[in-house]
Fold this sequence. Notes:
Elements: H1 6-10, E1 33-40, E2 44-52, E3 55-61, E4 76-81, E5 90-92, E6 100-109, H2 114-117
Antiparallel strand pairs: 1-2, 1-6, 2-3, 3-4, 5-6
Amino acid sequence: MSERLGTYRRKRDFAATSEPAGQEAAPAGDAPRFVVQEHHATRLHWDLRLEHDGVLVSWAVPNGLPTEPGDNRLAVRTEDHPLEYLDFHGEIPRGSYGAGTMTIWTRHLRRPEMGAAQGRGPPAR
Length: 125
């Protein structure tokens, strides 16, 4: 896991920010988790983080979250984050990478659709 968090750790000064540095990951249990965070940084965007292989695989969604099924939005891949980010909210100090306010919008267990989980693509709608 530590290799997967290398970029995340290099971008941050943990003496200056309350963001988690990341510890050894606890097992996900029955279903992996996810979190959506509103991030008031240089530009307002939302962060989508999905638990996978002991880290949170992350994307920034700059143009707002979709409100209807089939409403696609740009999602830009960012560095993996530690699992502790599932619970992170608060202020990232000015001058720090990602400075601004983080607010948790939602977090849940993630249950993949059967078709997608078996490599057959998303189910028909």
